[in-house]
Amino acid sequence: MNILTFNSEDKLNEAGAGLLASIVQKKPDAVLGLATGGTPVGIYEQLVKKYNDGFVSFKGASSFNLDEYVGIAPTHEQSYRYYMQQHLFNHIDIKPERTHVPNGMAEDLQAECLRYDEAIAEAGQLDIQLLGIGHNGHIGFNEPAEELSSGTHIVELAEKTRQANARYFATEEEVPRQAITMGIGSIMKAKMLLLVVKGEDKAEIVQRALQGPITTDCPASLLQTHPNLVVLLDEAAGSKLQ
Ligand code: F6R
């Protein structure tokens, strides 16, 4: 595990974007595992800048997002598809048909999960998977549980997760109760994992995830077993590490 701590958000975002860009520079048909949420916004901004500066092109790359809410259309402002379009895809040259986000509006959600896993398998291994972490240790929407699923599946969102995500909705009631998420197995199969965490409110879970026991009670603790884990933290998020 390689943990890097930054004293400015700009430097952290630059490091994250630099790592993603370097993978695509070395392998133009790279398969990128992407995440949404507040954490990667600045990284995507930097990545768009690198594209605009002619430093990297995504025309041969493909992408798979970790998750999507169930029952929210891709055109809904809070859907993860909409987020990805706004923050990244609309501003770079990635081919739209090579960007994948689970379809939370699928009539048959189980079939959608299988379809998503097949699409990942067909694309080959993810070259890198970008991850944030929830306050309860979730990655993707793999919430703490007695058992974790390996493949893409439907999850009931934990109350803590719904409360954390309510900031994007008019009322907490509007936050979806279910999501489709890539499973732990798909995440762990990526060649490299890039975990990014910002803020004091995540300091305790960062300590548990990276230095605590490996347990399904804290899904992110499983990342400790990955052979190529890079962690980017701001000083606040890293403040409880021993
Ligand atoms: C997002 C995702 C989630 C978030 C996590 C942290 O695609 O899978 O696991 O990474 O909830 O969210 P933020 O960055 O908003 O604190």
Describe the structure.
- By secondary structure, this protein is an alpha/beta fold.
- It has a single domain, classed as 3-Layer(aba) Sandwich (Rossmann fold), CATH 3.40.50.
- The chain is 31% helix and 17% strand.
- It has seven helices and ten strands.
- The protein has a seven-stranded parallel β-sheet, with helices on both faces.
- Helix 1 (9-26) crosses helix 2 (41-52).
- The longest helix is centred in the first third of the chain and has 18 residues, at 9-26.
- It is globular, with a radius of gyration of 17 Å.
- The two termini are 15 Å apart.
- The model has no long low-confidence stretch (mean pLDDT 97).
- Bound molecules: fructose -6-phosphate.
- Residues 35-39, 66-67, 132-134, 138-141 line the site of fructose -6-phosphate.
Q: How would the global form be characterised?
A: globular
Low-confidence runs: none
> How many helical elements?
7
* Helix/strand/pairing category: alpha/beta
Strand content: 15-25%
